[in-house]
Description:
This protein is of the alpha/beta class and about 240 residues long. The chain has a single domain, classed as Rossmann fold, CATH 3.40.50. The protein contains 8 helices and 12 strands. The strands form 3 sheets. Strands 1-12-7-4-2-3 form a 6-stranded parallel beta sheet, with helices on both faces. A hairpin with a 5-residue loop joins strand 10 (about 205-210) and strand 11 (about 215).
Amino acid sequence: MNATPNPTAAAEARARSSILARLRAPATTVPQPLPDVGAWFDAHQRHEDSAQRVARWRAAMEAVRTEVHDTSAADWPELLLRLMAEKGLRKLLIGSDTPHGAELEARRPGNIELKRYAESIDAWRDVLFDEIDASLTLAKSAIAEIGSLILWPTPQEPRLMSLVPSVHFVLLDAATIHPDFYSAMAAEGWKDSLPTNALLVCGPSKTADIQQTLAYGAHGPRELVVLLRHPASQSEGAAA
């Protein structure tokens, strides 16, 4: 007696064979062209001058409770020391070997103790977490579009300097404020060299609980203070 062919089984076998054939076949996909990111950003530029860009960056930073103080290359150390005195701060952490740290040390501030980050964290963890009031680091640049600082940690100014002390002072040159993130990466050649981590900081550390109560300093500095260095003529105009 001959068995009756099962049309369903035969169809399933053909479908399975077809699927396996496609899986085993070499890929023949055509690579898609990459989008022209630079052209997109060029077409969406705001065409603002440096003063407008600085103002836009400042408004975004101050909206999230960042302090911004105008200063110059000559005056910023005195401004920093005055702000520390007003805030009741006595111990300031500076980088192990930086030009701005050396400049501050040269002023010999009698009422402020400067501490260089020159030891292994294991050797002075308790001092860092319990005794240091504030830190000073240099910003690589900033972004006006999102209102942020770009910090570039180095062995001289490691990540912990911007994370542990309750007050973080940042020295920023106004000329390094870029329109947007793409402009910053292109102008500074990020594709050629990156640190182990690049940081975008938009304000002091903050968090909120389920009742929407906002608290500052939960995961980092409770205060972010930017010393915005302008060229001499511009800083005089800002002060006036």
